[in-house]
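User: For documentation purposes, I need each entry recorded in a consistent format: the amino acid sequence on its own, followed directly by the corresponding structure tokens. There are two entries in this batch. Please keep commentary to a minimum and don't merge the entries.

Assistant: Recorded as requested. Entry 1:
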Amino acid sequence: MLGFGKVRACHDPERLATFWCEVLDFKVIDRGEDSVEIGSWVPTIEDVQARQMPTTLVFVRVPEDKTVKNRLHLDVSPIDASTEDEVTRLLALGATRVDVGQGPGRSRVVMADPEGNEFDVLRSLAPRD
């Protein structure tokens, strides 16, 4: 039985791991020569055998540039802030807004991480007063 991780190809695994750790409140759980794995947990054999396997992200160094759509597309939904407050926080971390033709009035905000990989900020899950 194996653990469950999503792989994202990139030029600078450390930089993207740092960015996504801040975005997701994850921590680095493993490093290799050309890769960094982050997650919300430190996997143990017992957890994996019990099928308690939250997803991890593995950033792997590749020499080529991204030329088409992401192979892995992440969505984030803030749970303790408004969508616009989350977008502001992500911009401060190094994300950028992206126009992919989504048009006005959409319930998502398309952004890109520091290497240009698109992701969406969906509606906030924060309780409304």
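Entry 2:
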Amino acid sequence: MKGLRVIELSEALNVDIADLIAVCSILKFKASSRLSMLSFEECKKITDYYENNN
């Protein structure tokens, strides 16, 4: 397994899928749908983003 799908990470972080895709866009990750794959490194950066901005 290379990482998580957007939908899986949104469930783990308890955030809306659209918000998570917006964060991916901010961080310049190529995630355009709920089925897009994210690497574990991208997941970590997204998690850090939410921790630092909440």
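Summary note for entry 2:
DSSP finds three helices and two strands in the chain.
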